[in-house]
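$ run holo --ligand "nicotinamide-adenine-dinucleotide" --emit tokens
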Amino acid sequence: MNVTVIGTGYVGLVSGVCYAEKGNHVICVDKDVSKIERLRSGEIPIYEPGLKELADSNTAAGRLSFTDDLTEAMVAADVVIIAVGTPPLPNGEADMRFVELVAREIGYALNGYKVVVVKSTVPVGTNERVRGIVAAISDYPFDIASVPEFLREGSAVKDTLNPDRIVIGSESTRAAEVLTRLHQPFTDQLIMTDIRSAEMIKYASNAFLATKISFINEIANICEKVGADVTEVAHGMGLDRRIGSSFLRAGIGYGGSCFPKDTKALIQIAGNVEYDFKLLKSVVEVNQHQRYGVIDKLKRALGSMHGRRVAIWGLAFKPETDDVREAPAIEIIESLLALGAIPRVTDPIAVENFRSLLNHPSIEWCDSALDAAKQCDAVCLLTEWEDYAKLDLKEVERVMASPILIDGRNAISKEQLEGTLFAYYPVGRPMMNIEDIAIHELI
Ligand SMILES: NC(=O)c1ccc[n+]([C@@H]2O[C@H](COP(=O)([O-])OP(=O)(O)OC[C@H]3O[C@@H](n4cnc5c(N)ncnc54)[C@H](O)[C@@H]3O)[C@@H](O)[C@H]2O)c1
Ligand SMILES: O=c1ccn([C@@H]2O[C@H](COP(=O)(O)OP(=O)(O)O[C@H]3O[C@H](CO)[C@@H](O)[C@H](O)[C@H]3O)[C@@H](O)[C@H]2O)c(=O)[nH]1
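-- output --
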């Protein structure tokens, strides 16, 4: 099948490469000419395990190509997939500008029957708007369908090639048949539904996962007060199949390009039909507050933060990605700067992206976790990179001014702490090594 994918962000690029991997001829289009040039020269602009190998082999096999010319890319297409961004507007609503512009471009480029798929995460009713925009421009026949994307960054290729399910929202038998043929090689779990339900499944799924995270974070906060261990609690809960063990890792809250934006968008979608989504509003509020637990623990350990050197391990919103969009690290570092502290920051791959978001003269950029810890009064682990869970903390302790470790992701093991004098502050678990007393009184 001939597939044209519009937008080469995470979703467009990964799904385009994976459609090619399943034997389709895929042309990926982006209006960002420099991105297309990089892709044509074999460079992958995002960090995503396994993506480059797959892109290279499919390009070499002649199944994958890149262009900035949408009209040319659509000539032979059976399916045209919209995968452009839907970033948040200041009021939380999704910004539909890019989707609507692409719909117009599709209208002008249409040259015969095609299935137009909306893969971007969009409010209910958007597919109908896209249909209206295309139909107002073109007389050629086409069908519209919603195929939301559920990939996670960092495991996007694996998720796309082995999805739990693929949701296909369509109201035309012809489109449903085309999209079944396109997606059957990925899974037997094809959920055929109407367009509005498909659009809603995406928001409801993200909102539910975000709810699990905020729920376990609140349980963690209570655990800290009553002396229970949230990792034990989550394990005990998760074994109940009705609950499930995933997305019960307590920490500093969710970030990334999806949960923060999609939860706020769903609150707005509900508000637009006069429904007050109270539960989801609390989920967002809990998440916003959770990151400041790191600052509270630092203050408890160090007293005044002015002039304190604080190492930050991890800037990305999660491991295995260089994406820093809505990363909790942003507000944590801003708070440290406001308190007069000196953040010494590091991340295996996200430093450059972070620097382009927040480049304050007081931030010290470091090459490694050990380098960042030098002469620091405390270390805060904000992203659970595997490397950090392997660090020799005795070595880290030696370079620090005082051995205080705030673990925002419960990533450090008991074994790592053994033989050190670290005051260890995890999330929702008992502290280890020394009593819960202010270190500044000791030193
Ligand atoms: N990032 C994820 O993990 C993820 C997962 C599931 C769903 N989604 C959803 O998928 C959509 C895309 O997300 P993303 O993270 O890939 O976006 P992104 O912002 O990383 O990339 C979007 C791309 O679209 C391009 N673009 C914009 N307008 C264009 C136009 N008129 N013609 C051609 N290209 C154009 C941009 O240049 C950019 O390269 C969003 O709605 C998002 O919510 C994202
Ligand atoms: O138990 C958990 C699981 C996740 N997180 C945090 O939640 C955020 C999101 O993580 P994850 O869902 O793994 O990453 P995303 O790439 O943002 O993927 C989510 O958002 C995508 C965009 O909509 C969807 O496609 C995916 O299905 C959905 O998982 C990250 O900050 C994680 O640190 C936790 O704090 N605790």
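-- notes --
The longest strand covers residues 2-6.
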